[in-house]
């Protein structure tokens, strides 16, 4: 198996790309190097290019360019740019002018006419190098130096791929379009191009093959790297598709990568073959990391990051490592360290950890190579550290159900198990009952050893315990269906009802069957015994029903769900009887009928009729009727005694309706035949100024009695206009003794002075009648919201422009929520002022207001709605205002947020000050501050000032918070005091080279003078940096040295008062080696050693020594003692016959001394009394003179056929063999071949002729002697 190749680090960050231009055009190739001072060379056809009129070479910083002017056909060769050890190749292709288009017909010549030097694809050719491989790496596309022979266009290694969404190439620039030209020797009509995709997205690679010249369908194979066939990897993330277009005879092959992962990146290859034809194309896939948090894959922690890209792009293969993948760079364990990161994405598809934990150790390398783990050692270390108990699984289950699952309502869930026997029967139970597959609700699936139960559209009924039964074994789990929050789709609306009416408060929620809670003024409502409240559900609608509302039912009603709430106000008013039509005064003549009629709002109300305070009883002439809301009193055959005041009194209400009955008496007198006309207005119901009032929309009827003989003619006029009966609203008629003028539906323009003129031969008479039309007033202007409170607002409006002819007696106001359609009346009695304070609102809710004007006629139309407003109260005053610091010209104040903030929050704080004894408050700064502290500057020194703070929100400023007394602007003297931190109260120990940063706070006002001393002397500013502020002093040493040790003294001084503090710093280093290590004594297997302490202890105590020994033969050192505190020791258990040397390291709190102290002499361990004398043996001589064990045999062969002569020989050492013919050495003649194998010697004579006959001899020679064997060879001619 070939070893994966390593990518070299490219010196280019931008590489030139192959281009195609027309003859005579100018082309520019650009490149960018990683270093600005890199030297760059440009080559054409492996030869360096020098700057000239033809070639312009420029370099600016790290940008380099090559410009080729007036391109010609000889410029269509290969080019390269070289920087350091990196070389990038590219091509320039020349496109002929339009007039030369017929020359392309030659491209379709049969393969027999192709010149022999054309490039022919070979199956043995290696695949193309990756995009960022060095130029000298092997490439599957051979370079072609001939400009005359037609060649297959080389694939540009730098070409960008398809987009991640479509995988197409329509949006690519011209020089990045896929090469769709037909190769003369290849099979591809369109090659797959390199592409880029983001993790989780899809990409498609397309390859097209022209089938015109093919007898059968070509075979296409897709590879990743050099060896992995992707046909076996088809599945969830990889799909291979193909189709054939009969019109163009083109085969299209597609590779779909679905939901790409980071390890999909790498080099790919597409191979197509058809009988004796073969072609291949290499392309790359680059996978970019997604911005969202990825699921944790343990394999990612043991892959090396890419060096060439500088990023963390993983180059492992599609489920395995790629050849040529990047295994250089550094290991990235950041994913293992992010313990606090919430993992959102799902687990990896392949659990490599599970595979490694159950695999034998001999399979580790194979698994690591298969799943793309390049750092096996790091993986094994992690495997060893993490101890994971394997769950015991039953024999029937390879993988059981998890203990519990959770799914949201309406979603789909899939339960999965793995069984040991693929043919085992599996049953699924829900709460102990077997589940039957019913339509799309439950779906059972079986794939190999895996069994799936899919539950679609989960509901609350699916929240249960599930069991999977295989034989006698069971696997249990629980499914929890998470119900989504119930939202209120349609809110409650405010309502105002009359006492005793039925109330329905209705809202709509987002889920059917959801549980809601009803509350009134913060108290939960329940179904009581009296059934005061009823709760109704109708799908998503929830209704609260109050059968008979009372005054106690007024309040705020709240409906609450687990996802929201809605509030509305219910107002219950006492019933007030409204008069829709009042009784009117009547004037009738004798024998006429008088009818008094009124209409009230309640049809159940009864009433009593009175005449001059006496109850009227029904009789033959008097009739009393009550039909619905209409009450009538009818008097037939009116008589003079019927004249009087009539009153209707409703039962149970303290008001009455009154009217007057006037009796018109007709006197009959004898008059002469000539009687001048006369108008009688004495008995008309007129006002004192002869004005008749009529309500707009009502009928105006003027019945004027007239006399005259003969009967006079009547003319009605208004101003200069004569009124006639024209069939419209105006009607004029005359009867005997009366003239009647009627206007149907009086309007405002009908108002004015009407004149009636009567004439006959005896004379004429004239009378003027002033008619005034009264109406409801015009609507007022849109109200204005002056201010808002926590649950109230102050609204103001202007009176209507027209009062309707009657003075406005008051106003009626209504309000509603912004999103509601129901208006609620705020007052029933007319409100006489034009400013009103509306209360009982909900804080934070948006409202609108409108106003009606009321006069004696009725109510106007409503005004336009006011601007929406939100009842919000200012917050309470800030608390805890105090002086934090003060100086001669500044003061620092601080406070806490108010106790009561409200729903509007706080926009900021305003700070003001004034001199004591004045009321002129001056803002301390423009605008507001969001902080709860402030520093006010440029104050007069010695002045007594008062300060206050107010919180502001949209409702305005809060009450101010003030200091209890005035403050004098003068700095307060404070004694200097140094506050040494606890860790600096003892010696501060640092190692040589470490940074020292001491922050020592102090106090004192005014600002004290700060001085640092070291061992009583001023510190060196070149070595030590000091920075002082008002509250602390910082001593900083960037790289500490041994000489920085000492006692540092800090002094803070204000005038004659000062404070001091000492800080001891000890800089420690590694100790020096011990001194004078010597072997004091040797006895038996023991050695006594002695040494002296080191001269340099590293500025700290020596805490021990490390003693090591080594055998002089191997000089491998072994530790005998560690942390040994004495300066002498005994080394025991030494081996007899070995000679030992020793060395000692000194140890302090920093570590071992860099150099040891070796012993000057060695110690030889020997056992006294016995001397070992090894025996002397005579060495056996294995040498042997050569001897032929099988001689050569005389032979007779036929001319023209190869002949062989064989023999065998033995001898030690191996003898040298020489062949002779007729005593002539033939070892160097080409006609003969000599073989020697396992002592058998063979001489082969190629196609002998009679001349080759003779005596052949084989001679064997070595240092012990020689031997010769010979034979005769006869060569017979052919017959």
Automatic annotation (TrEMBL):
Instruction: Tell me the ranges covered by the Fibronectin type-III domain, including all copies.
Output: 779-875, 877-972, 1073-1168
Comp. bias intervals (Polar residues): 144-160
Any one GO cellular component localisation term in the record = M band
Where is this chain compositionally biased, Basic and acidic residues type? Answer: 167-182
Write down the superkingdom of origin: Eukaryota
Keywords (alphabetical) are:
Actin-binding, Cell adhesion, Immunoglobulin domain, Muscle protein, Phosphoprotein, Repeat, Thick filament
**Positions of the region Disordered?**
101-187
- Example of a GO MF term: actin binding
Task: List, as start-end ranges, the regions of compositional bias called Low complexity.
Answer: 102-143
Respond yes or no to whether keyword Phosphoprotein is given for this record.
yes
The record's Gene Ontology biological-process terms are: cell adhesion; sarcomere organization; ventricular cardiac muscle tissue morphogenesis
Q: Which residues form the Ig-like domain?
A: 407-470, 484-604, 677-770, 976-1064, 1186-1274
Please give one Pfam family short name: THB
- Which CDD domains does this entry report, sorted A to Z? FN3, Ig, Ig_C5_MyBP-C
Query: What is the role of the protein in this entry?
Result: Thick filament-associated protein located in the crossbridge region of vertebrate striated muscle a bands. In vitro it binds MHC, F-actin and native thin filaments, and modifies the activity of actin-activated myosin ATPase. It may modulate muscle contraction or may play a more structural role.
As for family, the record states: Belongs to the immunoglobulin superfamily. MyBP family.
Q: What name appears for this protein in its UniProt entry?
A: Myosin-binding protein C, fast-type
């Amino acid at each position: 198996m070939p070893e994966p190749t390593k990518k070299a680090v490219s010196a280019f960050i931008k590489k030139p790309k192959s281009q195609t231009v027309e003859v005579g055009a100018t082309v520019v190739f650009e490149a960018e190097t990683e270093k600005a001072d890199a030297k760059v060379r440009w080559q054409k056809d492996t030869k360096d290019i020098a700057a000239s009129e033809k070639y312009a070479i420029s370099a600016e910083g790290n940008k380099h360019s090559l410009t080729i002017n007036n391109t010609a056909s000889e410029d269509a060769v290969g080019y390269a740019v070289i920087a350091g050890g990196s070389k990038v190749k590219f091509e320039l292709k020349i496109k002929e002018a339009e007039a030369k288009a017929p020359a392309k017909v030659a491209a379709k010549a049969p393969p027999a006419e192709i010149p022999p030097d054309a490039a022919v694809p070979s199956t043995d050719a290696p695949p193309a190098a990756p995009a960022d491989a060095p130029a000298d790496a092997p490439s599957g596309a051979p370079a072609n130096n001939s400009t005359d022979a037609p060649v297959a266009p080389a694939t540009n290694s730098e070409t960008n791929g398809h987009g991640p969404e479509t995988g197409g190439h329509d949006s690519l620039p011209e020089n990045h379009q896929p090469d769709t030209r037909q190769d003369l020797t290849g099979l591809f009509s369109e090659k797959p191009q390199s592409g880029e995709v983001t993790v989780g997205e899809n990409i498609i690679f397309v390859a097209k093959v022209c089938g015109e010249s093919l007898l059968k369908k070509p075979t296409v194979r897709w590879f990743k790297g050099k060896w992995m066939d992707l046909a076996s990897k088809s599945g969830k993330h990889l799909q291979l598709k193909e189709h054939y277009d009969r019109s163009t005879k083109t085969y299209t092959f597609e590779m779909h990568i679905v939901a790409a992962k980071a390890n999909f990146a790498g080099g790919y290859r597409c191979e197509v073959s058809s009988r004796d034809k073969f072609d291949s194309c290499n392309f790359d896939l680059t996978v970019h990391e997604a911005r969202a948090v990825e699921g944790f894959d343990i394999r990612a922690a043991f892959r090396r990051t890419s060096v060439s890209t500088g990023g963390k792009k993983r180059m492992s293969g599609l489920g395995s490592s790629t050849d040529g993948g990047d295994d250089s760079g550094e290991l990235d364990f950041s994913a293992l360290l992010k313990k606090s990161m919430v993992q959102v994405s799902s687990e990896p598809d392949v659990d490599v950890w599970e595979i490694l934990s159950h695999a034998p150790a001999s399979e580790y390398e194979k698994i690591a190579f298969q799943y793309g783990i390049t750092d096996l050692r790091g993986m094994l270390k992690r495997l060893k550290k993490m101890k994971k108990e394997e769950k015991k699984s039953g024999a029937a289950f390879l993988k059981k159900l998890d203990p519990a699952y959770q799914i949201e309502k309406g979603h789909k869930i899939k339960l999965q198990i793995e069984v040991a026997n693929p043919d085992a029967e599996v049953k699924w139970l829900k709460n102990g009952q077997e589940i039957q597959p019913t339509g799309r609700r439950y779906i059972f699936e079986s794939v190999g050893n895996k069994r799936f139960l899919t539950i679609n559209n989960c509901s609350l009924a699916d929240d249960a315990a599930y069991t999977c039964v295989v034989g006698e074994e069971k696997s249990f789990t629980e499914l929890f269906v998470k119900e989504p929050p119930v939202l209120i789709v349609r809110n409650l609306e405010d309502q105002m009802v009359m006492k005793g009416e039925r109330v329905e408060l209705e809202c709509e929620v987002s889920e059917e069957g959801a549980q809601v809670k009803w509350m009134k003024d913060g108290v939960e409502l329940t179904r009581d015994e009296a059934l005061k409240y009823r709760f109704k559900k109708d799908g998503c609608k929830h209704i609260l029903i109050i059968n008979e509302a009372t005054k106690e039912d007024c309040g705020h009603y709240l409906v609450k769900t687990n996802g929201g709430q809605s509030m509305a106000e219910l107002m219950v008013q006492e019933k007030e009887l409204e008069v829709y039509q009042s009784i009117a005064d009547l004037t009738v003549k004798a024998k006429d009928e008088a009818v008094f009629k009124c209409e009230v709002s309640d049809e159940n109300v009864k009433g009593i009729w009175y005449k001059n305070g006496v109850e009227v009883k029904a009789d033959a002439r008097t009739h009393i009727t009550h039909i619905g809301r209409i009450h009538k009193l009818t008097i037939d055959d009116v008589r003079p005694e019927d004249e009087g005041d009539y009153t209707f009194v409703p039962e149970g209400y303290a008001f009455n309706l009154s009217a007057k009955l006037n009796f018109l008496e007709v006197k009959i007198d004898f008059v002469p035949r000539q009687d001048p006309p006369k108008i009688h207005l004495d008995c008309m119901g007129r006002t004192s100024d002869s004005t008749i009032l009529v309500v707009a929309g009502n009928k105006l009827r003027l019945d004027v009695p007239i006399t005259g003989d003969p009967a006079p003619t009547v003319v009605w006029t208004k101003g200069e206009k004569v009124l006639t009966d024209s069939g419209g609203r105006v009607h004029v008629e005359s009867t005997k003794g009366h003239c009647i003028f009627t206007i149907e539906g009086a309007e405002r323009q009908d108002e004015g002075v009407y004149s009636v003129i009567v004439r006959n031969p005896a004379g004429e008479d004239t009378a003027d009648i002033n008619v005034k039309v009264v109406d409801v007033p015009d609507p007022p202007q849109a109200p204005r919201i002056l201010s808002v409170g926590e649950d109230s607002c102050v609204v103001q409006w202007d009176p209507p422009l027209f009062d309707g002819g009657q003075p406005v007696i008051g106003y009626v106001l209504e309000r509603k929520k912004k999103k509601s359609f129901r208006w609620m009346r705020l007052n029933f009695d007319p409100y006489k002022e034009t400013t009103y304070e509306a209360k009982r609102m909900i804080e934070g809710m948006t409202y609108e207001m409108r106003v009606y004007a009321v006069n004696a006629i009725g109510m106007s139309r409503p005004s336009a709605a006011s601007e929406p407003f939100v009842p919000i109260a200012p917050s309470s005053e800030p608390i805890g205002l105090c002086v934090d610091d003060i100086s001669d010209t500044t003061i620092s104040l601080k406070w806490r947020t108010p106790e009561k903030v409200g729903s509007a929050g706080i926009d900021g704080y305003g700070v003001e000050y004034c001199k004591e004894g004045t009321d002129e408050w001056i803002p301390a700064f423009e605008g507001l501050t969001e902080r709860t502290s402030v520093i006010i500057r440029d104050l007069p020194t010695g002045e007594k000032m008062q300060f206050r703070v107010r919180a502001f929100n949209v409702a305005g400023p809060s009450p101010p918070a003030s200091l209890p007394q005035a403050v004098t602007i003068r700095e307060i003297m404070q004694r200097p005091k140094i506050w040494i931190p606890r860790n600096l109260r003892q010696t501060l120990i640092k190692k040589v080279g470490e940074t020292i940063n001491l922050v020592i706070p102090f106090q004192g006002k005014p600002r004290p003078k700060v001085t640092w001393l070291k061992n009583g002397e001023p510190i060196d500013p070149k070595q030590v940096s000091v920075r002082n502020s008002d509250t602390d002093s910082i001593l900083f040493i960037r790289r500490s040295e041994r000489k920085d040790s000492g006692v540092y003294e800090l002094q803070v001084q204000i005038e004659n008062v000062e404070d001091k503090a000492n800080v001891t710093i000890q800089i420690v280093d590694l100790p020096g080696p011990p001194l004078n290590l010597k072997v004091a004594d040797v006895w038996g297997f023991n050695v006594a050693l002695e040494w002296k302490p080191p001269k340099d202890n590293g500025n700290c105590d020596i805490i021990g020594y490390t003693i090591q020994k080594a055998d002089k033969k191997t000089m491998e050192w072994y530790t005998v003692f560690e942390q040994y505190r004495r300066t002498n020791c005994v080394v025991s258990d030494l081996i007899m016959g070995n000679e030992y040397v020793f060395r000692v390291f000194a140890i302090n709190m920093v570590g071992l001394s860099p150099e040891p102290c070796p012993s000057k002499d060695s110690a030889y361990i020997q056992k006294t009394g016995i001397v070992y004398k090894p025996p002397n043996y005579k060495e056996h001589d294995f040498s042997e003179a050569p001897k032929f064990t099988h001689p050569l045999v005389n032979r007779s062969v036929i001319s023209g056929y190869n002949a062989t002569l064989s023999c065998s020989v033995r001898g030690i050492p191996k003898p040298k063999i020489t062949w002779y013919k007729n005593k002539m050495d033939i070892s160097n003649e080409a006609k003969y071949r000599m073989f020697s194998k396992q002592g058998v010697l063979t001489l082969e004579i190629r196609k002998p002729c009679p001349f080759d006959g003779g005596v052949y001899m084989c001679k064997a020679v070595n240092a012990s002697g020689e031997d010769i064997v010979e034979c005769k060879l006869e060569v017979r001619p052919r017959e």
